[in-house]
């Protein structure tokens, strides 16, 4: 029975990897660390597949594992205090001159500048298309809180960018 459940869940998990990658990038700014978070989430999900209840929302289950893993890693980092984050190897050598790229970077910078709880909810609901109800389950809070945070996040980004054209994107 466990092998049947594991193979069924494994097929569904593969389909969710792009969404997991997008959510991890909302939580972590560096793509290498975000990919590591996805990998760690998948390892934990495989190890605990017997805890997944068939018929429930697999996507929410995986996002919850990822979110908990992320917050656990933050606690570890605070205790371990890693080396300097402003290493010269991660600094850009040249600035982009492509207007659309620069505009996209402005939007991403505005999203990254959001408080963590607003950024997380915005990515879950707006970028990944999670319902307010599923986002509430993933983040362990009320649906009204999710709606409020999405609304505030959209307003903060529009206010920061200063252009009304981006309202339709968000």
Task: Name some characteristics of this structure.
about 170 residues, mainly alpha, 7 helices
Quick summary of this structure?
Helices cover 71% and strands 0% of the residues. The chain is mostly helical and 170 residues long.
Commentary on this structure:
The chain has 170 residues and is an all-alpha fold. Helices cover 71% and strands 0% of the residues. The protein contains seven helices and no strands. The protein has helices spanning 2-27, 31-47, 58-80, 99-113, 116-127, 132-139, 143-161. Helix 1 packs antiparallel against helix 2 (31-47), helix 2 (31-47) packs across helix 3 (58-80) and helix 4 (99-113) crosses helix 7 (143-161). It is globular. The model has no long low-confidence stretch (mean pLDDT 83).
Helix content: over 70%
Uncertain segments: none
Q: In what range is the share of β-strand residues? A: under 5%
Taking the alpha carbons of the first and last residues, their distance comes to 44 Å
Biggest pleated-sheet summary: none
Give the SSE string: HHHHHHH
Shape: globular
**Overall pLDDT:** 83
What would you report as the Rg, rounded to the nearest angstrom? 18 Å
